[in-house]
Design a protein that fits this description.
The chain has 159 residues and is of the alpha+beta class. The protein has helices at 19-24, 38-47, 118-122, 146-156, and strands spanning 7-12, 29-32, 53-58, 65-78, 102-117, 141-144. The longest helix has 11 residues, at 146-156.
Length: 159
């Protein structure tokens, strides 16, 4: 029996990599590299699976907003950017023999017709317990409840 997909939110700064950048990739697919937080890494390594659904969130934007969705198309594997001294995500404590960091591949599902700004999401009762809306929440990869995902999908279709 197939397992029900899990739901996630992944943050990116649009000046570094935006949903529009993802839309221009071959097959609209990319590796999600550069995660350097152990809890976020553990979510990717231990819990993300094929066909899980992802909300893409533009952080450090004006305004910060959920901008679309993606799907996990490759499960966790070592993040090779950690091994490249010229890469901004280099980690001298990581190596191919002992990888410290992981990444997954995502494929674009949809770009919302209108971004859903953080301030708007804060006013939605059904999202009251969402990790993204917790004060001080900075995790770049975080779980999302199915009801939260569905609510955001509904909001994205409203004018």
């Amino acid at each position: 029996m197939a397992r029900a997909p899990k739901y996630w939110l992944m943050k990116t700064e649009p000046s570094a990599y935006s949903i529009q950048d993802l839309s221009r990739e071959p097959d609209q697919t990319t590796c999600w590299d550069g995660v350097r937080n152990y809890q976020a890494r553990n979510f990717m390594r231990d819990q993300m699976q094929l066909d899980d659904r992802v909300l893409l969130y533009h952080s450090n934007a004006k305004p910060p907003a959920v901008v679309g969705t993606a799907v996990i198309v490759r499960e966790a594997y070592p993040d090779h950017t950690a091994w490249d001294p010229k890469d901004k995500h280099y980690d001298p404590k990581s190596s191919p023999e002992n990888p410290r960091w992981m990444m997954v591949d995502i494929q674009l599902d949809a770009i919302f017709d209108r971004p859903l700004p953080l301030d708007e999401l804060r006013g939605v009762r059904a999202l009251g317990k969402m990790e993204l809306l917790r004060k001080g929440s900075r995790l770049s990869v975080q779980p999302v409840r199915k009801g939260e995902y569905d609510t955001i999908q509904r909001l994205s279709r409203k004018n």
